[in-house]
Amino acid sequence: MYDVLEIHNIGMKYQSLDGEINALEDINFSVRDGEFLSIVGPSGCGKSTLLSIISGLLPATKGRVLLNGEKINGASRKIGYMLQKDHLFDWRTIYKNVLLGLEIQKNVSPKAKDHALAMLKTYGLDEFRNAYPSQLSGGMRQRVALIRTLVTDPRILLLDEAFSALDYQTRLAVNDDIYAIIKKENKTAILVTHDISESIAMSDRVVVLSKRPGTVKNTYQIRLSCDHRTPLSSREAPEFRHYFQDIWKELDVHV
Ligand code: ADP
Ligand code: MG
Predict the structure, then answer these.
(1) For the residues 19-30, what does the mean pLDDT come to?
(2) Alpha-carbon radius of gyration of the chain
(3) Is the N or C terminus of the chain more exposed, i.e. has fewer CB atoms within 10 Å?
(4) What are phi and psi of 153, to 5 degrees?
(5) What average pLDDT is seen over the chain?
(6) Which has the closest alpha carbon to 64: 110, 130, 12?
(7) Using CA atoms, how far apart are residues 23 and 11, in angstroms rounded to an integer?
């Protein structure tokens, strides 16, 4: 497997009225094609900043990000972004919401429309295509948000605390749901979360960031003995709690 994304010496300083905020320092890691990578770190350590830099929306003050060996300059359609809020438009039907990313990219062709409809069908949303977001559960809305991102066929998916707004039970179910779709579509994904369990359950590798300025403290390759790995079955694996304890210690959480 080759590295689809390379992050070299990324640093970020924000200028604010109170002076300079050093958000990230000397971040280095790569993401392999098809890999699911999580980034965990304390609140305010620069996780969202890092994703914004990777997405090309925010220029870093130092370093560079390469996608397939090419420097990312500005917002790239090769990168799909999913946030904590699903940002569905309440006045648009599910189908029209799913077309939104394509519309923004001025890429709505008959073929693209067929693809969108096929994805709605594959992922059990066909009967809701003329419904409005308010008629769907939080979990279903996140599925729609993911499909909207996937129909633009991004090379890599960025998920910023994408499950944090959901209650615990729903979050576990949505973890499984979104994971299955990402795997079926063969996507590479980076998930930012402050939830240690979620990071282990979802990913092949966990990158732990220090408190601000965020630096890479450690990286864990997650190897779990379960036959058919899903986020839910991962949580049952005997190794799970060892990873949890290690990362918990690494994060040095105090009350
Ligand atoms: P996280 O997602 O890990 O909680 P963020 O990336 O949102 O952290 O923020 C990292 C630090 O940078 C925080 O101290 C935050 O207050 C600061 N920050 C974020 N965005 C801006 C901005 N636009 N201007 C100034 N400071 C910012
Ligand atoms: Mg954040």
Answers:
(1) 96
(2) 18
(3) C
(4) 55, 60
(5) 93
(6) 12
(7) 8
Distance CA 165, CA 33 (A): 28
| Spans of all domains in the chain | 1-75+192-255
Token pair listed for 118 = 């096929």
- pLDDT (tens digit, 9 = 90+) per residue, 157-174? 999 998 888 889 989 999
**Longest Cα pair distance anywhere in the chain, in angstroms?**
55
> Which comes out higher in pLDDT, residue 76 or 231?
231
* CATH number 3.60.20.10 given to 1-75+192-255: no
The predicted-structure confidence for 205-239, as pLDDT tens digits, reads as follows 999 999 999 999 999 999 999 889 999 999 999 99
Site to probe by mutation for ligand 1, drawn from 48, 81, 191, 209 as the one with most ligand atoms within 8 Å of Cβ, is: 48
For residue 160, the ligand closest to its alpha carbon is: 2
